[in-house]
Amino acid sequence: MASTREESATCRPEDDVVPPKSKSKSIRRKDFISTLPTREGWSTPLVQYNKYWHRAQILNEILQVQDTFNPRSDDIIMVTQPKSGTTWLKALTFTITGRARLSFSDHPLLTRHPHQLVPFIEIPDHDHTSHARLLDTLPSPRLLATHLPLSSLLEMSPGRCSSRMIYLSRNPKDTLVSRWHFEHKVLQPEHRDFKMELEKAFTMFCEGVSECGPFWDHCLEYWMESLARPDKVMFLKYEEIKADPVQAVRNLAVFLDVPFSHEEETSGVPQEVVRICSFDTLTSLPVNQAGGVDHGTYYMPNSAFFRKGVAGDWANYMTKQMGENLDLIVKEKLQGSGLFF
Ligand code: A3P
Question: Do the beta carbons of residue 200 and residue 341 sit within 8 Å?
């Protein structure tokens, strides 16, 4: 089913900013990014593009991928805000969809980081040209991931609407605390001594200034889309998967049109999927303990994607008052939508 941008339930920004179309593409992008509102504070400055905040390098890649990405109607796209459980969702979806051909005993997850198994649309491992080619060479149905807001995703290609999307959200307080830790793990030569107070991170997050933020707008776009098109957009919460991972895996399999058979249920396949994707299993594997990806201006250690993997850790870092303040902001922003955290 090919949907169009107009069919989407989500509101579009009224005054979209569009890069000018003269000069070479690369210079044009950089010039354009340099004109955007910028905020300092996180480990790299964030720039605001169509309401959302991005690292400048990532925005450069987003603008680049808009020209090169070729969507397919049967793509399966995992969407998150960073630190909402992207790594976990990639592992789960990869394992659920690949279970007919991959054995658990020598499963790719045992030797490869989940981010190596499911590429991001907008974040190349190395240089962008080969990344675009890599995405084109993947067999259908492709498993892809993105942190892009829905409005940006749709801008890239109206046809993308026909892809199935799984959106994983997470309690904003835990997302923020996870983000704050993560900022100190990404290695940047010029920011080796980077240090950010949690209070500063909290203030910026509450203002909506965090990577891919405002937090609430990102969630809300996909939430509304999931209400309008539940067969195409599945909206999940990290805490719900944590509470009953086996049921979450069953629901995911149904959404992906690969439900567990009676035989699979009897032999405990859903439980095995949960086990191999669990925080304990993944963190016990050498591939997730060492190594990383050099993105040029920053180095991303594989281990940075695993910290505690629990719900409610925010209470160990934020005061009760901070928690209540953030809850109130998010509640007001989501009011009337039926979405809550
Ligand atoms: P914490 O920092 O709270 O521990 P992302 O993958 O979007 O970058 O999110 C990272 C967060 O997900 C981290 O949260 C990380 O520990 C957690 N995580 C990673 N793998 C997980 C898993 N298999 N199960 C549960 N949580 C996981």
Answer: no
